[in-house]
């Protein structure tokens, strides 16, 4: 019975989410502007983090299919 009451409490909590404060929201301009090179490096790293692992998996898909379990 304690498991049921705990699950019911979690569901009740999920139904009424708390309001987030605006601590990180700012209407001021940024202190330091990012250069085009910094933005390009950040974008390249972001794409690399997602595309390199998925490309590896797709390139070796036939090996994964023929692998004995």
From TrEMBL:
Source superkingdom: Eukaryota
Pathways involved: Energy metabolism; oxidative phosphorylation
Record bears the keyword Zinc: no
Location within or outside the cell: Mitochondrion inner membrane
Pfam families assigned to the protein according to its UniProt record, in alphabetical order: COX8
Keywords: Membrane, Mitochondrion, Mitochondrion inner membrane, Transit peptide, Transmembrane, Transmembrane helix
Gene Ontology annotations for the cellular component aspect, listed alphabetically: mitochondrial inner membrane; respiratory chain complex IV
A biological-process GO annotation: mitochondrial electron transport, cytochrome c to oxygen
Membrane topology designation: Single-pass membrane protein
Transmembrane segment boundaries: 41-59
SUPFAM superfamilies noted in UniProt: Mitochondrial cytochrome c oxidase subunit VIIIb (aka IX) (SSF81431)
Coiled coil: none
Family that this chain belongs to: Belongs to the cytochrome c oxidase VIII family.
Protein name (Swiss-Prot/TrEMBL): Cytochrome c oxidase subunit 8A, mitochondrial
């Amino acid at each position: 019975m304690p498991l049921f009451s705990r699950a019911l409490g979690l569901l009740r909590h999920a139904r009424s989410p708390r309001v987030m404060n605006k601590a990180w929201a700012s209407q001021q301009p940024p202190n330091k502007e990012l250069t085009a090179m910094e933005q390009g490096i950040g974008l390249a790293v972001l794409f690399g983090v997602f595309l390199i692992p998925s490309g590896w998996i797709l390139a070796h898909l036939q090996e994964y299919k023929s692998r004995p379990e």
